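JOB MANIFEST
job_type = single_chain_structure
chain_count = 1
residues = 157
[input]
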Amino acid sequence: GINAEYGKQWYQRRVREAVVSTQSTGSSGINAEYDAALHIQAVMRGVRLRQFIKYLHMCAIRIQMAWRGYLGRIEYHKKLAAKVEERQLNYYHTMATKIKKVWKGHYIRKNVYDYYAMKKYLGALEEKNAIVRARLAEYEEEMKRREELENGTGSFR
């Protein structure tokens, strides 16, 4: 991209400057060529070193991406396991509630509100009520007779 173009332009500029600087110094040809070769080698070493550092940087980025992805997957699996456990617990609580509800209904109908025992009790209560009503009716009649006798005897005196 843009950085690669810029790197090439920078490299070409440095080589041109090295060649021009060796020519302008006016040193002997062999020494100038040697110095130019040294300068070109230094520039190339710098370019290759920067490329290698860029490569290492990209490798570090890939390693970081892989590591962060791994950590993210671990976190996801933990959250997923927690969610599954929560749903299972909710399901078990719901089922336990239904079982308790059915058991309580059975127990109440069988032991607390026993239909046949209640029917027997109400039958006995009706008999007792009939007896009490009969006695009250007899008592009322007795009281009426006494009142009539008292009213009747009170007028003869």
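[summary]
The first helix runs from residue 2 to 25.
The two ends are 143 Å apart (CA to CA).
exit_status = 0
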